[in-house]
């Protein structure tokens, strides 16, 4: 399984348009080679490079920018500036939407992680990444990662 973007390459720079310094819209993402037995897809975008003051202020280790689950296994693409066909859960900001990269200090890595699951999850829209990770723990068939870089 693969996750790619026609906006940036793996380990490449995310264009300003998709960050808090631009339009703050989601980039397009392309999904390939999803296993045939997949019942749903989940997507997590997070930033493990947050500074210590952000970690301690928010009591977190990673900043979650986008949490999406129960996408159709037939999904081949999430278009730029669009709502995915699944359920958008809560990001670290407490919002059910894409949170654009907005690093306060230096260049950060943003991980777009795609998961193929053997079930449709029964968790509410109010779920965050921790809830999603718990719910899908025993149901992951395959996964793929795309990394984008951004610094202001």
Q: What secondary-structure arrangement, pairings included, does this model have?
A:
Elements (H helix, E strand, L loop, with lengths): L1 E3 L7 E2 L15 E4 L7 E8 L4 H7 L4 E9 L5 E2 L8 E2 L19 E10 L11 H8 L3 E11 L2
Parallel strand pairs: 2-9
Antiparallel strand pairs: 1-3, 3-6, 4-5, 4-8, 5-7, 8-9
List key phrases describing it.
152 residues, mainly beta, 10% helix, globular
Could you please describe the fold and organization of this structure?
The structure is a single chain. This protein is mainly β and 152 residues long. Helix content is 10%, strand content 34%. It has helices at residues 52-58, 129-136; strands at residues 2-4, 12-13, 29-32, 40-47, 63-71, 77-78, 87-88, 108-117, 140-150. It has a six-stranded mixed β-sheet, with helices on one face. The chain has a three-stranded antiparallel β-sheet with strand order 1-3-6, with no helix packed on it. The chain is globular and about 40 Å long. The termini are far apart. The mean pLDDT is 97.
Short description:
Helices cover 10% and strands 34% of the residues. With 152 residues, it is mainly β.
**Helicity range of the residues?**
under 10%
Give unreliable regions as ranges: none
Please give the number of β-strands.
9
Shape, principal axes of CA atoms? globular
Could you give a short account of the major beta sheet? 6 strands, mixed
Query: Roughly what fraction of the amino acids lie in strands?
Result: 25-35%
Overall pLDDT metric:
97
Strand order of the largest sheet: 2-9-8-4-5-7
The count of helical stretches stands at 2
Structural class: mainly beta
């Amino acid at each position: 399984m693969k996750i790619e973007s026609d906006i940036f390459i793996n380990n490449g720079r995310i264009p300003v348009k998709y960050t808090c310094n631009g339009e703050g819209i989601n980039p397009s993402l392309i999904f390939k080679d999803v296993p045939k037995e997949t019942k749903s897809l989940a997507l997590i975008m997070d930033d493990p490079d947050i500074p210590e003051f952000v970690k301690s202020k928010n009591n977190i280790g990673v900043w979650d920018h986008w949490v999406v689950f129960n996408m159709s296994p037939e999904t081949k693409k999430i278009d730029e500036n669009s709502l995915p066909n699944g359920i958008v859960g809560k990001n670290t900001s407490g919002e059910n939407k894409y949170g654009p990269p907005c690093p306060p200090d230096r260049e950060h890595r943003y991980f777009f992680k795609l998961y193929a699951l053997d079930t449709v999850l029964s968790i509410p829209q109010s779920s965050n990444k921790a809830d999603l990770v718990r719910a899908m723990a025993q149901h992951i068939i395959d996964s793929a990662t795309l990394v984008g870089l951004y610094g202001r």
